[in-house]
UniProtKB/TrEMBL annotation:
One of its GO terms (biological process) is microtubule-based movement. InterPro entries: DHC, Dynein_heavy_tail. Belongs to the dynein heavy chain family. GO terms for cellular component: axonemal dynein complex. It comes from the Eukaryota. This is Dynein heavy chain tail domain-containing protein. It comes from Eutreptiella gymnastica. GO terms for molecular function: dynein intermediate chain binding; dynein light intermediate chain binding. The lineage of its organism: Eukaryota, Discoba, Euglenozoa, Euglenida, Spirocuta.
Amino acid sequence: MEVFQLIRESKCLLRIGVQLPESARIVLMQADKLKGFYNQLMYALKEYDRVVGMINPITRSLMTRCVQALDRLTHPGETSLTWLSLNIDVYVTKLTAGIKRLEETVLKVNGITENRMQHNLKLISKTLLVHLPENESFSLEQFVRLQEQYIAEQSEFIDVKNKEVEKASNDVIQCVIGAQASEGVVSEIHRDEEMKLKSHFNRLMFKAILTTTTKSLNLIKKRVGTRNRQGFMFVDKPFFDVSVELHSPNVLLNPSLQEVQASINKCATAVLR
């Protein structure tokens, strides 16, 4: 920095008894103050990079105007201020406060997206739509009734979480709008910026529901199916209560395999609704 080079050279000249010009003496008298400003500005620039780097990529477009408002605060330091400007301390104070406000907004937005949106999406993706105990057997009527009831309960849970994600996306938008207003930004958030955010989480919601549906169907397949060549009636704990009846000269299953398959299909259909 030229000003600090001037300070060093002035000190050297004083040591050898050279008379300094008035401007150099003024700079030398304010050396400690200028070093303090320099350290504060370097810290502010690092904080700027840190805070802007905290912005989630999916909300970056939405927060463009908030970052631009902070950039406007930095502008005087790039154009009009010098190290000897009388209001440099005011500039540093305003810049530091602006960075702090942006950080608060970023933390709020990140908190909403992480704790209310991404968290709920993870809960949905881990949800199973069927309840298939390993150590119980059921009649076909019990099986269908139990699964339809459980599917209805889990579907309601997913619907609640979906609405929470939707509300959270609206809260993110309102949080950014409020931050813009506090910075004096009068332009509204563009519709495409809102839709970009909502479309992103709509895709994640679809993926989460697809994941839980696939896992539920695979669980049905695993539980009612078997690799045993003798069939599912001969496993340690069969899933369905099926009796073998002798109707000479035939041996029949009651209920029939067709009825068992129909019940499984009914459960799978309920999962897909």
